[in-house]
Amino acid sequence: MEPEASVALVAPTIEAHPYRLRPFSMSDTGLIARAGKDPHIPLITSVPTSDDPTLLQAFIQRQHRRLINRSGYSLAIADAATDQAVGQVGRWLHNLTHGIASIGYWVDPEQRRRGAAGHALAAMSRWGLSQPHIDRLELYLEPWNEGSWHTAESCGYQREGLMRSWRRIAGQRKDLFMYSLLPSDLPSTAGG
Fold it and tell me: Which among 98, 55, 56, 91 is positioned nearest to 75, based on CA atoms?
C-alpha cells in the first residue's frame, strides 16, 4: 500500500557496488560546484552555475524537499569506500497515477568513464521497479549524448523513439530520445 499523499517519502540508501546511492549532505557542495561548471549539467538540472555556498546549499535543500512534496527521490552517487559524492541519480514521480516514473542522472565531469552512472542507473532502476505502483521507468536523453544512451542501453533500457521538440533546454525546444525499462526487461535473478 502506498503511503498517504500527506506523508513525506523516505530517502533510501541503495547499494550500487562499488557505489552507494544516498541522500545528499551539506558536505556534497564541492560536487555541486564542479557540476555547475559543466557545459551541460546546469542546462538540464537545477544545479547552480555559481559556486556561492548559499546557492550550493539551496540545491541540496531542494533535493531533500522533493521527498516532502513527494515529487521524487534525488540521491547522491557516492563511492562506497570513501562516501565521496561523484554524481546524482533521481527517480521522479510526476506520472505515478499512470504507473510511470522517470529517471535522470549525471556524473561529475572529473569522475566520468569509471562506471558510476551505469552502477547508479542499474541500482536505481531495480529499486524503482520493485516499488508498488511503478510499472514503467522512462529516461529522456539528448541525441548527441552517446555516452548516456550507451549507459541506458547497458542497463536494459529500450529506445522507443525520438520525441520531437520534447523539452525546453537553454531556451530552445530540443529533441530527446525516449527510453523505457519494464520489469520484464530486468535480468532474471533466478539461478539456473
Answer: 91
Query: Nearest-CA neighbor of 102 among 179, 175, 46, 45?
Result: 179
Give 69: exposed, middle or buried? Use CB within 10 Å, 0-12, 13-18, 19+.
exposed
Question: Taking a C-beta distance cutoff of 8 angstroms, is the pair 124, 110 a contact?
Answer: no
Phi, psi of 164 (to 5 degrees): -75, 135
What residues are paired with 102 via a beta bridge? Answer: 92, 138
- What are the pLDDT digits (tens) for 96-144? 889 999 999 999 988 888 889 999 999 999 999 999 889 999 999 999 9
Of the chain, the end-to-end C-alpha distance in Å amounts to: 32
